[in-house]
Amino acid sequence: MRAIRFVSSVTFIALGLLVTMAAVEAQSGKGSVATRRTVTLNVIVHAPENRVVTRDDFDLYDGGTPQEIESFARLDSGSRIVLMIDSSASLRAELAALQKATEAVVNELYADDQMMVVGYNENAEIITDMTPDLKALQSASAKIIRKGVPNLYDALIAVSDALAAAAKTGLEKRAIILVSDGYDSESKTKFADALRALQDENIVLYALQVSDRTRGALMRDKPKPPAALEQMTAATGGSIFSFDKAEDAAKNIADDLRKNWYRLVYAPAGVTTFEARRLLLMPHDEKINLKTKSLLPSSLHPLR
Fold first, then answer.
1. CB-based contacts of 32: which residues, under 8 Å, 6+ apart?
2. N or C, which end of the chain has less CB nearby within 10 Å?
3. Tens-place pLDDT, residues 119-156
């Protein structure tokens, strides 16, 4: 196995250009209002069977301001997925159960999907590189090695960078399926920075939740493990499933990736782009559930 290399994508040139653009806009009186640059959101749609959901079925709010949706359509293309497995020694799951869960997720892939399998403890290590080869992915479960402690937040940064580097464009469907209890031991990365990395790269996080090894203990400077999983999945448009029902979870995630993944495009209007903004989707029908990332970064946020 080989370690994932951390890639720093902060560029002073890009930041300088953004600051210059901000100054020009401020001088012209347009600095507080978004330009016609469009924003693309991944939206996971759950609705009754045979119910066609369109942009007329909900309202979009950006920073509390209603927005006009330019397009909204289901994506039928394949996905780029990282199956990310906590391989630390103290995880409350037997190796055989981890292997079974891995196989369940892999077996739900479609022909045009690609997956990378990563195990993490102190470091994130590639077990199987990004590939559509089902046989290669099925053999990954036998290569999981239990050791060490889990640096979850560092691993999420590394995997986010790997997904960004592997994508042909920034518009592909990208997801992480995390097998974990949400516990982080001693990452250098803060929780908020790991979450921001997922949101910046438009990655949807799903979790197969293992029993909490801390049994509800308070964490210093970070959420409790169950709360960390809940916050990260909700803030990226993903979901949490029980590790004990891995086969059902794998089928539900596959349905989201193949049948329920939509792309929304709009041009922000009436909002300041120099601050992070909350996003909200409000369906008109209570039987429709819509999930997307919860936050847009400011236009001056350093590029990852």
1. 272, 274
2. N
3. 999 999 999 999 999 999 999 999 999 999 999 999 99
